[in-house]
Amino acid sequence: MSFIRLILILTIFFLVTLILIIFQFISVALNIKPGFIPHHYHKFVIRLISLKVIKYGKCTSEKPLLIVSNHISWLDILVISSSLKVSFIAKREVKDWPFFGLLAKLQRTVFIERSIKDLIAQKKIMASRLLVGDNLLLFPEGTSSDGKKVLPFKSSLFSLAELNQADYQITIQPITIAYTGVNGLPAGLSERPLFAWFGEMSLISHILNLLLAGPAESVIIFHEPQTIGTFNSRKELSEHCEEVISNGLSKAISGRLE
Question: 37, 195, 204, 232: most buried by Cβ count inside 10 Å?
Fold first, then answer.
């Protein structure tokens, strides 16, 4: 991608984003289809940056719905939110990020603290969001990875799945995110740093390097939905989701998806 095209993309991105921030603020304040703008906004962004999203399977229509996914990069937000209407569950620090923290708040992200005391109160907030029909997405790894493998899931984050009552049960939808190509070629080990954002990487330089690399390809795999009633504990549910998501990632990056 030429430097001139990069400047054009960034200019269009910021102009459209600033306009839609106003409309989304009104939408959230009045509670009028607050998921509509983020979903279509992210569809626009992936087209703008030439990120192709290939889907395998489909998301369940069951409600209440908690989606769990591996986490590789800030790109995951674009891939997931362009594919379905969803709000994210994120660590408290994200709320204070310049610009991106504002976008997260306008997408009605649920920000969680790490302490057990705070998690108990926040679990009630998340449960109430699920029960009114919001789709919530959780990254059970707790951080982003290098994109080569799935990090161990934190089973404590699956405690929401235990909030089953006689008249409802929470459905868990595991999904896998993978980045599989760049400039029309399969992405190998040397291309992984283009997509994976983790450790002490600079966010701005990572965004610019990806945009300069050219058109990219990603995969989202919707696995079989589950409920905790199928398992003996939330730990078993967590282990199952980790296994199917990990297998999905291995197949995607090795080109073995059917």
Answer: 195
DSSP state of 21: H
Contacts of 127 (CB under 8 A, 6+ apart): 160, 163
- HSE, CB side, 13 Å, CA atoms: give it for residue 101: 9
Residue with tokens 């929401």: 160
Residue-wise burial string across 73-100, b where 16 or more C-beta atoms lie within 10 A, e elsewhere? bebbbbbbbbbbbbbbbbeeebeeeeee
Rounded Cα distance, 236 and 248, in Å = 18
Task: Return the pLDDT at 124.
Answer: 82
The tens digit of pLDDT for each residue in 41-53 reads 999 999 999 999 9
- Read off the amino acid at residue 185: L
Residue 217, C-beta contacts closer than 8 angstroms, at least 6 positions apart:
51, 52, 54, 179, 180, 181, 182, 187
Give the C-alpha separation, 197 to 122, whole Å.
27
Q: Domain extents for the chain?
A: 3-253
Residues 6+ apart with CB under 8 A from 152: 141, 242
Number of H helices, E strands in the chain: 8, 8
CATH topology for 3-253 is Glycerol-3-phosphate (1)-acyltransferase (3.40.1130)
- Alpha carbon 29 to chain centroid, angstroms: 24
Q: Is 211 helix (H, G, I), strand (E, B) or coil?
A: helix
* Start-end of H helices in 132-216: 192-195, 203-213
**If you average pLDDT over residues 240-256, what whole number do you get?**
93
CA distances from 96 to 6, 91, 103, 106, 134 (A): 27, 10, 11, 13, 23
pLDDT of residue 161: 78
